[in-house]
C-alpha cells in the first residue's frame, strides 16, 4: 500500500495516542519519561511532526513497546481501517483544505470511530467503482465547487492578466504573434506549429509542452484556439505554476494542484484574450438594447476573435461579479449529425438546477434544450436542407447563435439561455454547442432589457426525456419514453394508496 509522508505521520500519531492511553499515561507523564515537551508530543499525536529515530526510540521505551512495532505501518484490528483510509488515493488527493477541513480534524473524526469512518470511505469508493468514477472526477468536482465558492471570479488572476496587457500596451486585443514573441523573449520557449497526423492517437490534442522548453501547437486549430493555447502557456509561466499538465487537454490527472493550476492558466488566458474592463463595458451596452439580437452577440464574439467557449466562460466569470447575475450554468454539447446521441462534455453549474452529467446512453437529454436544438438546426444548415433562420437566430460564417427562455420543470425556474454552435476543428464531422443560462430573476430583469423580447420563445424543458412528465402531444421532440417519470408516478400512487388503506383499517 502506498503511503505518503503525511499519512505516515498520521498513522504514527494514532498509534502513539493509542499506546499511551492503553498505558493510562497522560501527555505530562510521557513528557517526564521522554524529556520531550508536552507541546511536541501533542504535535506528534496530531500528525504534524515525525520525530527523529532517537526520539522515536525514547517514545518506544517509555511505552514499553518494541521500536519496530511503533514505527511500522502494521496496526491492530481497531486501527486497521485507518490505514485503508489514509492509503486511499481519494484521501491523498482530495483538497479537503478548500472546505475548511484540515487533515487533523479529519484524523480526529476517523479515530473516534475508525471502523465506521472506513466503512463510509469504502462506500464512497465502491460507488465510484460501480459508476466508473475515478479520483480525477472527484478532483474536477472539487474544482467546480471551488469556482462556485468564489462565484467563479478571481481578482488576483484578473490583475495578473491586466498587468500583462499593460506591459504589452495591448488593452483591447493581443495577437498570436505577440504572445509567441513574449514566450520566446521572456521565457525562452519555442512555439512550433505541427500537424499531429503522424501520431493518430494525438490528433485530438491542442498542444503539447515538452522540455527545451517547447510548445507544440496543433496546426489544425483555428487561429483563435492557437492564440488561447499560447496565452495559456504564458499563464503557467507568468504565474509560476509548476505542477501542470503537459498536454491540452490533459491525458492524466495526478493531483489537485495540477487541476487548479491548469484552471488558473486557462483563466489567465481568457482574461488576456478578452480583457475584463473592455468586456464589461461591451456587455453594459449589449444589455441595454430592448430587443434580443443574435447578430449583436456574434459581433461581440468577432470583436474579441475568441472561440464561443472562451467568450461564454468569460461571461460566467464576469456576470456574477459586475452584474449580480450569480445563478447561471455553462454547458457544452457535441454531436455528430449522423448520430442520435448528444454528448455533454463540459459543465459548470452555479445554479440550483439539478443538471445531470454523463447519462448517455441510458438517458437522453431533453431535445428542447437550445444547445441541442441549435445543433440540429446547424446540421440542417450545413447539409443545405430546408432549415431557415428563426427570429431569435443569427449566423456568421460557421457560427450560429440563438436564445431561449427555458422553464425547467424539475425546479420550476426560468432561465435565459444563449447558445453558440460551430464545427469542431479537431473532430471532423462533429459540431459543438456552448450554452450559458442565467436565472431570470429581478436582477436579470433590471440589468437585461431584452429579457422578455416576444421574438424569443418560452419553452418548457426537462433534464432528460426519461424524467419528463409532458404528454406525447405536448412534445414533438421526445427521444425516449418517460420511464423514470412513470416509475416515480407509480411509487407515488402506491404510497398514496397504502396510506389510504392503512387509514381505513386503523381503529
Characterise this structure:
- This protein has helices at 5-22, 27-34, 38-45, 53-63, 67-71, 80-87, 89-93, 103-112, 114-130, 135-149, 155-168, 176-187, 223-238, 256-273, 276-287, 294-304, 308-323, 370-383, 442-447, 483-505, and strands spanning 190-194, 207-210, 214-218, 247-248, 328-335, 343-349, 394-396, 399-408, 413-423, 431-439, 458-461.
- The protein is of the alpha+beta class and 507 residues long.
- The mean pLDDT is 86.
- The strands form 2 sheets. Strands 5, 6, 7, 8, 9, 10 and 11 form a 7-stranded mixed β-sheet that branches. It has a 4-stranded mixed β-sheet with strand order 1-3-2-4, with helices on one face.
- The chain is globular, with a radius of gyration of 28 Å.
- 49% of the residues lie in helices and 13% in strands.
- It has 20 helices and 11 strands.
- The protein folds into 3 domains: 5-133, Orthogonal Bundle (434 Repressor (Amino-terminal Domain)); 150-273, Orthogonal Bundle (Arc Repressor Mutant, subunit A); 277-482, no CATH class.
- Helix 8 crosses helix 9, helix 10 (135-149) packs across helix 14 and helix 13 (223-238) crosses helix 14.
- The N and C termini lie far apart (61 Å).
Throw out a few tags for this protein.
507 residues, alpha+beta, 434 Repressor (Amino-terminal Domain), Arc Repressor Mutant, subunit A, 3 domains, 7-stranded mixed β-sheet, 4-stranded mixed β-sheet, 20 helices, 49% helix
